[in-house]
Amino acid sequence: MASESELLQSVPTSLWIGGPVEATGGGTFPVHNPATGEVLTRVADATPEDAVRALDAAAAVQADWAATPSRERGEILRTVFDRITARAEEFALLMTLEMGKALPESRNEVRYGAEFFRWFAEEAVRVHGRYLHAPSGTGRIVVHKQPVGPCLAITPWNFPLAMGTRKIGPALAAGCTMIVKPASETPLTMLLLAQLCSEAGLPDGVLSVITTSRSGAVTGPLLTDPRLRKLTFTGSTEVGKKLIEASAHGLLRTSMELGGNAPFVVFDDADVDAAVQGAMLAKLRNGGEACTAANRFHVQNGVLEEFTTKFAEAMASSVSIGPGAEAGTTLGPLINEDQLNTVAELVDDAVAAGAQVRLGGKAPGGPGWFYPATILTDVPPHARILTEEVFGPVAPIVGFDTEEQGLAAANDTEYGLVSYVYTRDLDRALRIAEGLESGMVGVNRGVISDPAAPFGGVKASGFGREGGIEGIEEYLSTKYIALS
Ligand code: NAD
């Protein structure tokens, strides 16, 4: 296993457009280590012209890639899965260095992120159409699926590998070419992946990576270029709305994986110990910097004190905060100073409004952007922490009396990505799961993400699905051929 500095030296830092290329003008921007605030390295700063070069490359090979037998496309994806798996430790360390998360979290992400290549290697050969006789007897109907064409993927920093592979896997399997614009905080993982895809036999131009510090200016020209046919975005609802507007010009197909504000609902009849275990995962996975993170805990009053006490004990005894690469760390730093300030502000706002700090609640100070695992109780309904996405290791807990009140409180949000419910009553579990306004529901489960399942939201959490048999559909158009 390479040392940190050997690893950083081996990762490409130029753009990836049919191989490594410098940005026009030779500009670069820094990538920071959130555990220290220090600069890890610098990467190429793409210009709008570079983005157009990537689209030139994608458009040039689109037809050939679509015509490549699906088995061959699948074999390449499967090779990528094998190679990521073989280099799992390198990917994990790289993600920890640029994103901050603790190494065990990064290892989980490597497994999860790689799996999208294996899953879609298998799905590539299962794109089916239909053949039927028209009910009127006037002819035959053939339904045929074709790749939508060149795609642009814009991804966030919180899962530097998986947020990309969830898009690249199905796009390539469907026969689409793709340009990825990773978050400027975490460009290295995607550059390493592009190199690895090339080594695995992916033809030049099928996958490009453009890193830039000016996301809007650089991706803007692509959205109005008629050769681009699809935009797939994961990130904040605010940016997603802007991109939907910008996509209207070219009437692009769009998939939007946006923000979340997940409720975690615990009923009196729940197995409280299991609920605490689930809460630890739902809150602290990825240091709380996950769109699926439980944002607020609604606990029925009969078990409110027991749940709160046990949750606080679990956090106090099992969370070890520190640099993500250090042995024993389970909670790394937040991504940057802005995020640290946002989390601290949300906690301070809740406390000023009357919330009690049961655990944590105070940043230890630099170097690095650390915030401790925190539990707030007696949080008043108007506190911002209940309505805004926290994106940090803070758990606000509120009580409720009846099932109806619990469900209403859970649904009282503009978002609708995922909800969690703990109960031992099957009827109630199904009733609540059906009543929750979210694209996904975890029943007695604190983690729901699975490459074999359709991931996605409703309401302000967006539309489109990633993973499952649904994931590849996002990259396919339906053609109807009428036959006599
Ligand atoms: P963000 O919206 O700020 O940035 C996401 C990506 O968009 C980055 O690559 C960024 O550089 C780019 N971007 C920003 N402004 C742009 C513009 N004007 N034009 C083009 N690109 C632009 O989000 P973030 O802070 O990186 O990520 C956190 C957000 O992502 C949270 O809201 C989280 O819930 C969401 N998220 C959602 C999912 C999901 O599957 N629903 C998964 C992970 C994260």
From TrEMBL:
Q: Write down what this protein is called.
A: NAD-dependent succinate-semialdehyde dehydrogenase
InterPro entries documented for this protein: Ald_DH/histidinol_DH, Ald_DH_C, Ald_DH_CS_CYS, Ald_DH_CS_GLU, Ald_DH_N, Aldehyde_DH_dom, Aldehyde_DH_Superfamily
What family is this? Belongs to the aldehyde dehydrogenase family.
Cited PROSITE patterns? ALDEHYDE_DEHYDR_CYS, ALDEHYDE_DEHYDR_GLU
Secreted in keyword set: no
| GO MF annotations, alphabetized | oxidoreductase activity
Give the residues annotated as active site. 257
Its domain of life reads Bacteria
Enzyme Commission number, as recorded: 1.2.1.-
| Family annotation (Pfam families) | Aldedh
Instruction: Spell out the Gene3D superfamilies in the cross-references.
Output: Aldehyde Dehydrogenase, Chain A, domain 1 (3.40.605.10), Aldehyde Dehydrogenase, Chain A, domain 2 (3.40.309.10)
Per the UniProt record, the source organism is Nocardia aurea
Q: Where is the Aldehyde dehydrogenase domain?
A: 24-481
**What keywords were assigned to this record?**
Oxidoreductase
